[in-house]
């Protein structure tokens, strides 16, 4: 295949870039249009080529030794006559030799001058996390100053490529804003898709820039192509899904747990782990391992895991780092599925070699290792608290994971104070082995988990994560708090984990493409985790606000726009139906302002109508504390109406903002417990949560 | 003055726009450069003018009957020869008459062709809230698609105009990004400043567009000028500041309060008001007014306020709307300073006339009216709860106001649950008379108020507000929650209050220019109100994060960037000083990661160093719950160290994010009570609050 020959020749020559004609060959092979051109090795030939291509033309030096052609005086633009071309040929040659007398000159490229329509940039980079990533943006100020660019994983479908055109802020421009000629969207998308194919087929392409591409009503032509080459990234080895699932199931539902370093001494990690396992009510076998004890907390202790009579599914490590390796060998020989590696003192303290060593041992034995440098993990359906932190047993349907122990503790405290039921809380720490995609593979099929929330600072295998997330998202929301969002944040991530955090825009676009709901901050992640499993999925985009406080209605409307939601345009008949229930000076439309002094029946009638009318898909309630309808009266009423309508099949997400004196706190809690996501003193939070649910529902294809 | 003649002639002719030559005259009079040009009434004259101006030139039809010249075929661009100009003259004339055979043709303008440098737009509009407002942006896609534009009140100083150049997202472009020629910033700012003067001097200019203005290294030339004219907005009448202050002082510190409609019957508004006044501990005279009672709650009642023996400073109205007018006449005759108009049933229910009537009565008597349609007001230093809501008595230094009753109730509930001390809570409702600027005038000099937080949906007198806010901000933060931020939100505001809400970008830029701290949502406003008075003002931009949880450090860094703060670049000597206190595998730099297992002394040493070193201006702490340093140990330690360092003169804002089990809630409260703004389960909120404090400190000129 000639294209492979081009690449291999260039690499063999020790080059890190292709020449322009080589780049053009690549484009031709993939159906990417480039301007008419040819290589001239004499002024005569240049004149002849220009005549064939058609004036005006551009002349460019072609030399493997001259990368920055303009700096070398190697480019002339807009030559209109044969005379100009002849003169230009000689001038460029002289400039180039003056710039670098030793340059090997292959000739001078004669190229059609293009420049109509829109100037866009299409490119691809090799991202350390995600591999080949395609970039698209409008040329000039928009990309270079305003960073108006969007990214996708390569390869990508034509539809994904079309989506990129709409994903930039200046998307209107390509549709012909300001009377400009619209671009041929299909042609441009096809070009993007072909670049995706090109960089996927040829992993040696480290970077490619098609800049500018001129896109007009007829098509898209790449006026300049720059290709950087190098050795391809090593392939990431992945275990088969069945294998991951088998081991993860043994880890989350173990028949037996060994505690390496179990201790009877209060304050020791090995003691906390033992207490949490026993007091948490874990029903499987617990094997304390301690060379100096015969019995710990009423259970027979073993000198070594090798001495344990039965099988060991999980070994929880509660010993100093320096003792881990030999103990892990024994755990491996015992055939355990999981090593819960609590000890710190590995890569996070600079002990990279020590971490490599234990990874090698675990891999050799087929043991999956969680950590090191973690608090452990909880799995409430099995009453499993394999952690040295405080125990937690409120069962629920969200699984949370964190890369940092501090964030894990925040998850625990938040869960306890809000009574958030969880299926699992998992620390992943240094992620030397088990990564978020392994956990997603388990949670995907775990009947106890209805939503997943993950705090992460980096991804070891971005594509593995995207693949897993895409599968899970079809069934359950995946919420991600990606720390190190900003340039400064990323720098901090670097100093903390040694991981090279990718540029946030790449993460943002690709996580969105994977259907993940990204939380902007820690508290948002926690609130989404708490609320998403209890909200039913919406079936359409029509959101209606019903409010007793006009002031809340305005703020809720603001929040609706911020959350990317749509205030329903209420049809006349529905408007009339609402009006029948509210005072004449109340406002129908949307928000529906029932006004402040209304009795419970007005809330009931309007909310029931909102739930029953099938054109409405979600309700946002604004409550205003009055003597006529006190907070708990409102809460019980709404809980009852929502339950009654759900029983009739009118299942819709309902969120509420409660404005009032402190009784609204109890009312909000009551509503939450009854499936209505409610918050006091904020109009933003309930709507943000509804927005998160919608983002998932759209990604899962439930709204179309 | 010829300019006034131009305007008056155009208005006299019933025109709503000036002709291009008239617009040019305006520009010339104000030193705004326009291209060389002249009016030709024959092809010969056009040729002569073009020769004088210099080729290439532009030809444009001049006719009061043709506003859209291009549509009429009335513009030809880039004519390079005398021949072209002659032909062009005839062609335009023919096109124009074909477009509108009845058009009066004044001639054809011959204009220098400009087009070098950057294309920018300078304009002014008459905003319903703020009056003359100047707009600036970069031409083309940036303004029209990305809405990259910034606004200021006119007139404005040259410095403010320079600030506009930096306030657009694409600001770099004018500084010469991507190798372009930088614009002459002073010349462009001067042009903007002159437009500000022009529209201020000539109120009949409803709108002016200088579009495009070409700005290059030499200067700025307005290539096209469009001026719309009309009758000027009526002047807003304002009371003298001393007069406002005198009345407001009587309202907030009254010697006597009459309750119009006082009642002994529980559940009545007039009863709630009486109870709150008495039980709240108000020490002045309370006069119940009720035609049917002799005594209410142990106080002598009067048939009418006219019967009250002493002076009445404030009358609280607790009677239906229809009885208000005659009672207000009596209150006016009695010489009261304030009428607290609780009753609803005025403009908000469509009773605009009824509202006008009571405003007229109040104005006639010099009574300042709060409301109507409000919950009343609280002023804790006087133990004054003149409201029908629940009483509130926690004294503190923030004054809060709300335009909506629902938001007022949220303020009350939030205050109670967080023990937020307040100086005042004030409902402004329909704002028929007393507006935010009146309240600011009082709070400005009120020694009991150290910060002001205002929820508002509209401003009756935008300039009055800006003037008052600018004064107050020099001494105290002014926090504003502007509801109706978004297009959808603004629509809802319209339906709620009948007020025409301005475009949010205008509000946003002008509030910022006034030095106001804008809160993005209700909960943010409440948290800023609670936290800003207890945080000392920072003296510089160097923020340092000290964290026990690396994971929190990354999230706090993200939050720092989001909040517009600056992570200090730590000098080597300071870095070494911090390193001396933390484990070798901890990270110095910034964040300073002291690592998770550290004892209290590590927190103490590092925080003390952070407070003592004068190069550091603010601290953000990340706490991670461990057995070694439990939450309350951390809280007491930090409170003590902060107090000790403050006693030594090291007064700096300190905020903290606490990650841990539920004990961190109590620890956060303790810290808050001791002057450290602390929150559990969130890394965003403490930093957002610090960011708000910084925004104020910058506006107050404390950082420079």
Structure characterization notes:
The structure is a homodimer of 704-residue chains. Chain A has 704 residues and is an alpha/beta fold. The first copy, chain A, contains 24 helices and 30 strands. In chain A, the strands form six sheets. A seven-stranded mixed β-sheet of chain A has the order 19-18-21-20-22-23-24, sandwiched between helices. In chain A, strands 5, 6, 7, 8, 9 and 10 form a six-stranded antiparallel β-sheet that branches. In chain A, strand 11 (256-260), helix 10 (269-279) and strand 12 form a beta-alpha-beta unit. In chain A, helix 3 crosses helix 4 (82-99) and helix 21 (600-612) runs parallel beside helix 22. The longest helix of chain A is centred in the N-terminal third of the chain and has 18 residues, at 82-99. The model of chain A is unreliable at 488-502 (pLDDT under 50). At the A-B interface, helix 5, helix 13, helix 16, helix 18 and helix 19 of A face helix 5, helix 13, helix 16, helix 18 and helix 19 of B. Chains A, B: This is Acetate--CoA ligase family protein.
């Amino acid at each position: 295949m000639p294209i492979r020959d081009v690449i291999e020749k260039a690499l063999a020559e020790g080059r890190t870039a292709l020449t322009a004609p080589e780049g053009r060959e690549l484009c031709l092979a993939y159906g990417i249009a480039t301007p008419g051109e040819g290589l001239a090795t004499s002024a005569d030939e240049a004149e002849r080529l220009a005549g064939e291509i058609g004036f005006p033309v551009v002349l460019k030096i072609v030399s493997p030794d001259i990368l920055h052609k303009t700096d070398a005086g190697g480019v002339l633009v807009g030559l209109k006559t044969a005379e100009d071309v002849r003169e230009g040929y000689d001038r460029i040659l002289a400039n180039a030799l003056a710039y670098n007398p030793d340059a090997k000159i292959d000739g001078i490229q004669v190229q059609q001058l293009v420049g109509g329509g829109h100037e866009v940039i299409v490119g691809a980079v090799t991202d350390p996390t995600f591999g080949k990533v395609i970039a698209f943006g409008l040329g000039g100020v928009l990309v270079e100053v305003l960073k108006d660019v969007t990214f996708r994983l390569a390869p990508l479908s034509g539809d994904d490529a079309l989506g990129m055109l709409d994903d930039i802020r200046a998307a209107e421009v390509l549709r012909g804003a300001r009377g400009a000629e619209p671009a041929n969207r299909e042609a441009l998308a096809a070009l993007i898709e072909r670049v995706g194919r090109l960089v996927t087929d040829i992993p040696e392409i480290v970077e490619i820039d098609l800049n500018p591409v001129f896109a007009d009503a007829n098509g898209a032509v790449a006026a300049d192509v720059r290709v950087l080459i190098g050795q391809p990234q090593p392939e990431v080895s992945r275990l088969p899904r069945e294998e991951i699932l088998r081991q993860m199931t043994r880890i989350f539902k173990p028949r037996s747990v060994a505690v390496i370093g179990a201790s009877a001494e209060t304050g020791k990690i090995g003691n906390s782990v033992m207490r949490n396992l026993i007091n948490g009510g874990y029903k499987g076998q617990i094997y304390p391992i301690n060379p100096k004890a015969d019995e710990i907390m009423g259970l027979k202790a073993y000198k070594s895991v090798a001495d344990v009579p039965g099988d060991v599914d999980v070994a929880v490590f509660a010993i100093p780092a320096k003792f881990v390796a030999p103990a892990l060998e024994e755990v491996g020989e015992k055939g355990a599925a999981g090593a819960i590696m609590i000890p710190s003192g590995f890569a996070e303290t600079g002990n990279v070699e020590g971490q490599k060593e234990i990874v090698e041992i675990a891999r050799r034995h087929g043991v999956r290792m969680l950590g090191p440098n973690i608090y452990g993990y909880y799995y409430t359906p099995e009453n499993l608290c394999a952690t040295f932190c405080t125990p937690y047993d409120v069962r629920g349907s969200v699984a949370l994971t964190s890369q940092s122990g501090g964030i894990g503790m925040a998850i625990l405290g938040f869960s306890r104070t809000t009574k958030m039921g969880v299926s699992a809380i998992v620390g992943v720490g240094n992620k030397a082995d088990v990564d978020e995609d392994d956990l997603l593979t388990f949670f995907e099929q775990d009947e106890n988990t209805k939503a997943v929330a993950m705090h992460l600072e980096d991804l070891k295998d971005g594509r593995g994560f995207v693949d897993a997330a895409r599968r899970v998202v079809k069934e359950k929301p995946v919420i991600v708090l990606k720390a190190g969002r900003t340039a400064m944040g990323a720098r901090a991530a670097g100093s903390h984990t040694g991981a090279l955090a990718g540029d946030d825009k790449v993460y943002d676009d690709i996580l969105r493409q994977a259907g993940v709901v990204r939380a902007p901050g820690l508290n948002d992640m926690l609130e989404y985790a708490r609320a998403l499993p209890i909200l039913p999925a919406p079936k359409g985009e029509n959101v209606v606000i019903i409010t007793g406080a006009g002031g809340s209605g305005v703020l809720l409307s603001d929040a609706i726009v911020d959350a990317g939601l749509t205030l329903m345009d209420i049809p006349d008949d529905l408007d009339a139906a609402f009006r029948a229930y509210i005072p004449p000076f109340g406002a129908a439309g949307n928000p529906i302002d029932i006004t402040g002094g209304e009795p419970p029946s007005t809330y009931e009638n309007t909310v029931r109508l909102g739930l029953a009318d099938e054109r409405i898909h979600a309700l946002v309630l604004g409550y205003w504390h009055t003597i006529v309808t006190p907070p708990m009266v409102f809460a019980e009423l709404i809980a009852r109406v929502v339950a009654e309508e759900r029983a009739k099949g009118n299942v819709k997400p309902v969120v509420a903002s409660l404005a009032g004196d402190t009784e609204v706190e109890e009312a909000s809690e009551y509503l939450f417990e009854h499936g209505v996501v409610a918050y006091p003193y904020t109009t933003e939070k309930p709507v943000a949560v509804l927005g998160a649910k919608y983002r998932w529902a759209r990604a899962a294809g439930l709204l179309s």
